[in-house]
């Protein structure tokens, strides 16, 4: 015998043998040489054939992955549709007569009520096969792809145990053990019970089988893919195994997409439920609305739907306070004498004063419900509560009306500005943006910048999504989009981090207005340019937000203490929760430095705002005057504190010198 291998690198492609030399007892050296020369030619043909085969294998693999990827990322809704689309699209590259995909139930634990019969002995515990991660092997759906004869796809939910694919026990074995099974002569196998004859009316017979588990990123078996009868009649080889294994791995990993989609859907649903719960708790109840809009008492009806809007507007006006009695048009307005419920009626009054309720057909009950709901949206915290929210809304109203800035804006814009001012700090938590970031609060993860301001904006928009709270419900689409944009500009502008960016732009507008000779020229200069109007509005929001610093001293001193207390509460949290030393402004132990800090805040932040507004409109000068008066008060107290500290330092120094001499 003369034998030699045909090699492709280190791989043996074939063995060629010559047997029993004629007329001789053995092959000679010359025979070996002739044999090698012959093999040089024949091995080239074999290697070429093998290279072509490998090329076809890689081409199939690439096409399968390409098309399956295309379908996998096209379909993210659920695993069944994803697998079906991918496997159906690549059927021509699978090179088999049939294939079947069994999807496994992913439930790991039974419901408690399903366990009761077993625990009571009324039912036998499950003793069948389990997946490697402990789940019962339960195929909840099988999809059969029939490619011979007439192409057909059959989807079998809750397949019976005698289904032609399951009856052999091979898919169950693969699901239980996670093995790849390649059976060259399936009917002859003794371990599995494959049907030896036709499996159905088509006369099709099982010859060879390749079965693989589909495994996800968590290494859980999510299904079993089984392929039957290679088209050329040969058994499935190692290259078929590699191709199909690559495909099942890719499909398994792609389950991450559907899992993520499902999680996102659940999160979306949870968000909707949470929002619904929030609205139920926050939204003004019928009795709360009726405490202001007394339609039952005054109109003698049982349901508000029976009332005419004109009657509702009339009786609502009767319940609202006189603006003059409470000084709602004055910059010096103080909320202290008014109850929180009274501030709701004051807020409604302001919308009537700017003549937007009748003009934009705002239903009386919707306006009342919205105003009451905004009040309930503010948390019961030290400073950033409903009283602060109302004060900002009242100051915006006063700037527009008493400050004469309304002439640059339309009625719709004024409506949106006052409404946004009321909402600007809704659901404030009593801590600033920096604390949200330091504590890794969910809000900080949701919003990259202007964290709390964006939350106030989103909360405000959420209220308007409820038709029974939407005070802008009778606007057309374009008008409503304008309102939402103005809400965004106004509320985000209250972030003091943005204040320094806009002050120069505002100053340039004021400089230009000062040079103009007529009021008409100034109105035209601003009103025709939306950007200038937005810059002024943004600065107005800053002026409103800081307006407590301009109030009469008896009001300002109390409000400053409330602000300081809220800062100190945050400082306490930083010290206890974050284990960090708070800055002096937040440090309760440095409370005596409050006057000094107030003087610094007035000089560094506030003076520019009110000085420029007094230049812009002389009617706003009372705010600047109030600021200067308060600075004098705070400076006096800061100087007294400095003098006191100086005396203490000198006394301490004398005591140290005396102790040193004695020593």
From TrEMBL:
<keyword id="KW-0175">Coiled coil</keyword>
<dbReference type="InterPro" id="IPR036971">
    <property type="entry name" value="PDEase_catalytic_dom_sf"/>
</dbReference>
<feature type="binding site">
    <location>
        <position position="425"/>
    </location>
    <ligand>
        <name>Zn(2+) 2</name>
    </ligand>
</feature>
<feature type="binding site">
    <location>
        <position position="424"/>
    </location>
    <ligand>
        <name>Zn(2+) 1</name>
    </ligand>
</feature>
<feature type="domain" description="PDEase">
    <location>
        <begin position="308"/>
        <end position="641"/>
    </location>
</feature>
<dbReference type="GO" id="GO:0007165">
    <property type="term" value="P:signal transduction"/>
</dbReference>
<feature type="binding site">
    <location>
        <position position="545"/>
    </location>
    <ligand>
        <name>Zn(2+) 1</name>
    </ligand>
</feature>
<feature type="binding site">
    <location>
        <position position="598"/>
    </location>
    <ligand>
        <name>AMP</name>
    </ligand>
</feature>
<dbReference type="InterPro" id="IPR023088">
    <property type="entry name" value="PDEase"/>
</dbReference>
<comment type="similarity">
    <text>Belongs to the cyclic nucleotide phosphodiesterase family.</text>
</comment>
<feature type="binding site">
    <location>
        <begin position="384"/>
        <end position="388"/>
    </location>
    <ligand>
        <name>AMP</name>
    </ligand>
</feature>
<feature type="binding site">
    <location>
        <position position="545"/>
    </location>
    <ligand>
        <name>AMP</name>
    </ligand>
</feature>
<feature type="binding site">
    <location>
        <position position="425"/>
    </location>
    <ligand>
        <name>Zn(2+) 1</name>
    </ligand>
</feature>
<feature type="active site" description="Proton donor">
    <location>
        <position position="384"/>
    </location>
</feature>
<dbReference type="InterPro" id="IPR029016">
    <property type="entry name" value="GAF-like_dom_sf"/>
</dbReference>
<feature type="binding site">
    <location>
        <position position="425"/>
    </location>
    <ligand>
        <name>AMP</name>
    </ligand>
</feature>
<dbReference type="GO" id="GO:0046872">
    <property type="term" value="F:metal ion binding"/>
</dbReference>
<keyword id="KW-0378">Hydrolase</keyword>
<dbReference type="Pfam" id="PF00233">
    <property type="entry name" value="PDEase_I"/>
</dbReference>
<keyword id="KW-0140">cGMP</keyword>
<dbReference type="InterPro" id="IPR003018">
    <property type="entry name" value="GAF"/>
</dbReference>
<dbReference type="InterPro" id="IPR003607">
    <property type="entry name" value="HD/PDEase_dom"/>
</dbReference>
<dbReference type="InterPro" id="IPR002073">
    <property type="entry name" value="PDEase_catalytic_dom"/>
</dbReference>
<feature type="binding site">
    <location>
        <position position="388"/>
    </location>
    <ligand>
        <name>Zn(2+) 1</name>
    </ligand>
</feature>
<keyword id="KW-0479">Metal-binding</keyword>
<protein>
    <recommendedName>
        <fullName>Phosphodiesterase</fullName>
        <ecNumber>3.1.4.-</ecNumber>
    </recommendedName>
</protein>
<dbReference type="Pfam" id="PF01590">
    <property type="entry name" value="GAF"/>
</dbReference>
<feature type="coiled-coil region">
    <location>
        <begin position="624"/>
        <end position="661"/>
    </location>
</feature>
<dbReference type="InterPro" id="IPR023174">
    <property type="entry name" value="PDEase_CS"/>
</dbReference>
<dbReference type="GO" id="GO:0004114">
    <property type="term" value="F:3',5'-cyclic-nucleotide phosphodiesterase activity"/>
</dbReference>
């Amino acid at each position: 015998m003369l034998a030699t291998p045909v090699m492709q690198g280190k791989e043996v492609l074939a063995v060629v043998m010559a047997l029993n030399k004629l007329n001789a007892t053995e092959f000679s050296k010359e025979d070996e040489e002739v044999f090698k020369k012959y093999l040089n030619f024949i091995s080239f043909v074999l290697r070429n054939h093998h290279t072509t085969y490998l090329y076809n294998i890689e081409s199939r693999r690439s096409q399968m992955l390409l098309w399956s990827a295309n379908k996998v990322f096209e379909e993210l809704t659920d695993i069944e549709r994803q697998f079906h689309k991918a496997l159906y699209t690549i059927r021509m590259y699978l090179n088999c007569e049939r294939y079947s995909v069994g999807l496994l139930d992913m439930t790991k634990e039974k419901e408690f009520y399903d366990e009761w019969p077993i625990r009571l002995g009324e039912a036998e515990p499950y003793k069948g096969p389990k997946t490697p991660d402990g789940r019962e092997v339960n195929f909840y759906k099988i999809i059969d792809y029939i490619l011979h004869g007439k192409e057909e796809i059959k989807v079998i939910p809750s397949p019976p145990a005698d289904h032609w694919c399951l009856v052999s026990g091979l898919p169950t074995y693969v699901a239980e053990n996670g093995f790849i099974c390649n059976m060259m002569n399936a009917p002859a196998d003794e371990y599995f019970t494959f049907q030896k004859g036709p499996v159905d009316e088509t006369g099709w017979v099982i010859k060879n089988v390749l079965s693989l588990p589909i495994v996800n990123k968590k290494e859980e078996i999510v299904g079993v893919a089984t392929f039957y009868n290679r088209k050329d009649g040969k058994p499935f080889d190692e290259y078929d195994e590699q191709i199909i294994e690559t495909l099942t791995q890719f499909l398994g990993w792609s389950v991450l997409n559907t899992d993520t989609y499902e999680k996102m859907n659940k999160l979306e649903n949870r968000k909707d439920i949470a929002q619904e719960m929030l609205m139920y708790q926050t939204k003004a109840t019928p009795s709360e609305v009726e405490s202001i809009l007394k339609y039952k008492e005054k109109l003698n009806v049982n349901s508000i739907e029976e009332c005419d809007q004109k009657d509702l507007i009339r009786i609502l006006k009767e319940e609202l306070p006189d603006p003059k009695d409470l000084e709602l048009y004055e910059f010096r307005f103080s909320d202290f004498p008014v109850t929180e419920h009274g501030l709701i009626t004051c807020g409604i009054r302001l919308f009537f004063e700017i003549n937007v309720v009748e003009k934009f057909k705002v239903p009386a009950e919707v306006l009342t419900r919205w105003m009451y709901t905004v009040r309930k949206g503010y948390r019961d915290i030290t400073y950033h509560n409903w009283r602060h929210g109302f004060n900002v809304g009242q100051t915006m109203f006063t700037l527009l009306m008493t400050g004469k800035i309304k002439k640059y804006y339309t009625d719709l814009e004024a409506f949106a500005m006052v409404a946004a001012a009321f909402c600007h700090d809704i659901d404030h938590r009593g801590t600033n943006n920096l604390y949200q970031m330091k504590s890794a609060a969910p809000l900080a993860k949701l919003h990259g910048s202007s964290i709390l301001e964006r939350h106030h904006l989103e909360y405000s928009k959420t209220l308007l999504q409820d038709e029974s709270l939407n005070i802008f419900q009778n606007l057309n689409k374009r008008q409503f989009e304008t309102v939402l944009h103005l809400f965004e500009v106004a509320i985000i502008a209250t972030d003091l981090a943005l204040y320094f960016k806009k002050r120069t732009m505002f100053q340039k507008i004021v400089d230009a207005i000062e040079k103009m000779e007529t009021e008409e020229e100034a109105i035209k200069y601003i009103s025709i340019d939306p950007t200038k109007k937005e810059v002024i509005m943004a600065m107005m929001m800053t002026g409103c937000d800081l307006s407590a610093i301009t109030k009469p001293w008896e009001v300002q001193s109390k409000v400053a203490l409330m602000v300081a207390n809220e800062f100190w509460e945050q400082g306490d949290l930083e010290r206890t929760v974050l284990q960090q030393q708070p800055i002096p402004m937040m440090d309760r132990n440095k409370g005596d430095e409050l006057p000094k800090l107030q003087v610094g805040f007035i000089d560094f932040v506030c003076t520019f705002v009110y000085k420029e507004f007094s230049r812009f409109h002389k009617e706003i000068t009372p705010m600047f005057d109030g600021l200067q008066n308060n600075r004098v008060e705070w400076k006096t107290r800061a100087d007294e504190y400095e003098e006191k500290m100086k005396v203490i330092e000198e006394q301490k120094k004398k005591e140290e010198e005396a102790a040193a001499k004695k020593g």
